[in-house]
Write a structure and sequence with these properties.
The protein is α/β, with parallel strands linked by helices. It has one domain: Glycosidases (TIM Barrel). It contains nine helices and eight strands. It has an eight-stranded parallel beta barrel with strand order 1-2-3-4-5-6-7-8. α7 links the parallel β6 and β7. The protein is globular.
């Protein structure tokens, strides 16, 4: 089988350090302007500014009642198993308006990436507001209703961004799982967005088969969509040799790679990008 997605041609970094935006590391920079902690920074010109949408631990700390909730009363807060941050209910109208306003503000600087975009799990959200909105909607299927809710939000977000809009997908390429997990449907989002990004992060990448498998799965799942795919890797404790190896494994399946980078990682990432650019390109035949 020959996958239709192209071999990686661009490499960049993801950082929360404004100084690194000006370091000219790679072809592009993703800058974390809004974190899941609730902390916000001024957007950076020339960067793809990243905004955490429903992930906002600060807001949940102030009012846990705004967190998405399951039918058994479990709330999407950092203390809940499987949740590393607090997630606001995606139908909270006041918060939704605030996020759209923030996207518009950040979007004046150019390209925007959205993270923590959908519902925080298959079982969420079952608050009274979500139950009421689903019951009065035109949908008989709750998954379809959740997907329509998120798709409408992304369309409104796109209208507030001067540049490109990139959507982060949960790293689960099995057909239908993104809709069930989060209400994200790449096919419905295709006309609206300018790129998808999948984080495949590890501390040291001691094993790498899963990275290649997930990247290949997304290449297959998104192969018929005319939207570029970026894979995100982390540089935390992985040396240059290991990162080059991982990068080479996923290059046949993505259009670009972005490396999570801190000041301590600059030399490593420069070396990785240089070695990836100068090596012979891998085959896309699998």
């Amino acid at each position: 089988m020959v996958l239709t997605r192209g071999t990686v041609s661009m490499y960049g970094i993801l950082t929360s350090d404004p100084a690194l935006v000006r370091e000219n590391i790679g072809d592009f920079v993703h800058y974390i302007s809004d974190e899941v902690s609730g902390q916000c920074r001024s957007p950076r010109d020339g960067a793809i500014n990243s905004i955490a949408c429903w992930g906002d631990t600060g807001t949940i700390r102030d009012d846990s009642g705004r967190a998405a909730i399951s039918a058994d009363g479990t709330r999407a807060i950092p203390e809940t198993d499987g949740h590393h941050w607090g997630t606001v209910c995606p139908t909270d109208p006041d918060y939704r308006a605030e996020v759209l306003d923030r996207i518009e503000t950040v979007g004046t600087a150019g390209d925007v990436r959205l993270t923590t975009l959908g519902f925080p799990g298959t079982e969420f959200c079952r608050c009274d507001r979500c139950d009421r909105r689903f019951a009065t909607s035109d949908f008989d299927d709750r998954i379809a209703w959740r997907t329509a809710t998120i798709t409408r939000f992304v369309r409104k977000a796109a209208n507030r961004v001067n540049g490109d809009l990139i959507v982060t997908l949960y790293p689960d390429p099995y057909p239908g799982n993104l809709r069930e997990r989060a209400g994200l449907d790449p096919r419905q989002l295709e006309p609206t967005v300018d790129g998808f990004l999948v984080p495949l992060c590890s501390i040291s990448y001691e094993t790498t088969y899963w990275v290649e498998s997930l990247a290949r799965g997304f290449a297959r799942e998104l192969g018929k969509l005319d939207v570029p795919l970026t894979i995100q890797l982390s540089a935390a404790k992985a040396g240059a040799d290991r990162l080059v190896d991982v990068s080479r494994q996923i290059e046949p399946y993505a259009d670009s790679i972005v490396y999570g980078t801190t000041e301590d990682d600059i030399a490593t990432i420069r070396e990785v990008i240089h070695r990836c650019r100068t090596a012979d390109p891998p085959s896309t035949t699998v």
